[in-house]
Write a structure and sequence with these properties.
By secondary structure, the protein is mainly β. The protein folds into three domains: about 30-45 and about 215-285, conserved putative lor/sdh protein from methanococcus maripaludis s2 fold, CATH 2.40.420; about 45-55 and about 130-210, Elongation Factor Tu (Ef-tu), domain 3; about 55-125, OB fold (Dihydrolipoamide Acetyltransferase, E2P), CATH 2.40.50. Helix content is about 10%, strand content about 45%. It contains one helix and 23 strands. The protein has a six-stranded antiparallel barrel. The chain has a four-stranded antiparallel sheet with strand order 2-16-21-20, with no helix packed on it. A hairpin with a 5-residue loop joins β7 (about 85-90) and β8 (about 95-100). The chain is rod-shaped. About 20% of the residues are buried.
Length: about 280
């Protein structure tokens, strides 16, 4: 009986040892990786900025104290007006102001005479003709050009996008409101949507500008590992993963330009396993 008990214990120990060995072997096996090589491709870099939806055609009507005392503003916000409709009536019976364009009244304000020259009393706009006003940095302004395609998005309508086109890039930067010496230089950009957007005037939009396509040697963005300020890739050499620091260029979010660090015939690991170390053995799928 004792002998059988010892045999049973021995079998349990043997099976446990075999499982342990198998586990250790599994831990030491080389991770499987997928590789790719540099590919010549055309990339369009995305410039992403915030913009504001504005009417393209609008008329600002100012109170003119020299005409006399204002009698009545004959419109309210939301009113539809036609060209020639009376907007402002002065107490002088021969002095009135008429609309020079048709549209919707989007602003009505009683303005004190001291601010009459700078604040419009009434603003009329054609809400079907829209444009988006944005600003780009001086670096981005070198890449943004009239005619480039634009995608527009709004937080108010998640999941929806609209197409547009850059119709103007200012030659001069926007004037700074702060007057400080360290203000960022920005250039106004105007985008024209292909259709009227279903959001209110003044709404904030995400403006994604597609820059001019550039031919470049590229890798998938997923092949690049960022460590601090360094960009790295892993290249397979003699069955081992070797780190290479690379210099990157433009990116469209999926592929990225590689300017130096790898050669065209190098096998670069796509989506390197987390924790992969320099010199670690790998198996290529």
């Amino acid at each position: 009986m004792k002998k059988k008990w010892l045999i049973g214990v021995g079998m349990v120990v043997l099976v446990g040892a075999m499982v342990t060995v198998a586990a250790l072997q599994g831990q030491g096996s080389a991770p499987e990786v997928e590789v790719t090589q540099l590919v010549k491709d055309e990339l369009s870099e995305e410039v992403m900025v915030s913009g504001t939806l504005m009417p393209r055609d609008q008329e600002q009507i100012f109170y003119q104290p020299e005409r006399g005392e204002l009698d009545v503003i004959k419109v309210e916000e939301g009113d539809k007006v036609k060209k020639g409709d009376t907007i402002l009536d002065y107490k002088n019976p021969y002095s009135r102001v008429k609309a020079s364009q048709s549209g919707t009244v989007i602003k009505v304000e009683e303005v004190p005479p001291s601010q009459a020259a700078t604040r419009p009393a009434v603003v009329i706009a054609d809400l079907e003709k829209q444009e988006v006003h944005a600003e780009v940095s001086e670096f981005e302004a070198l890449k943004v050009e009239k005619g480039q395609s634009v995608t527009l998005e709004s937080d108010a309508l998640p999941g929806e996008t609209w197409k547009g086109e850059v119709v103007r890039v200012a030659y001069l930067p926007a004037e700074s409101d702060t007057g400080g010496g360290n203000d960022q230089v920005v250039y106004p950009v105007t985008v024209q949507p292909e259709e009227a957007l279903p959001v209110k005037m003044g709404s904030k939009l995400m403006v994604v500008i597609q820059t001019q396509p550039t031919e470049a040697l590229t890798l998938p963005q997923s092949a690049v590992v960022t460590r601090g300020e360094k960009s790295l890739v892993f290249v397979v050499e003699d069955g081992k993963a070797r780190e290479r620091e690379v210099k990157l260029g433009i990116s469209d979010g999926e592929r990225v330009e590689v300017r130096s660090g790898v050669e065209q015939d190098d096998d670069v690991i796509v989506e390197p396993p987390q924790g992969l170390k320099n010199g670690e053995e790998v198996t290529v799928r």
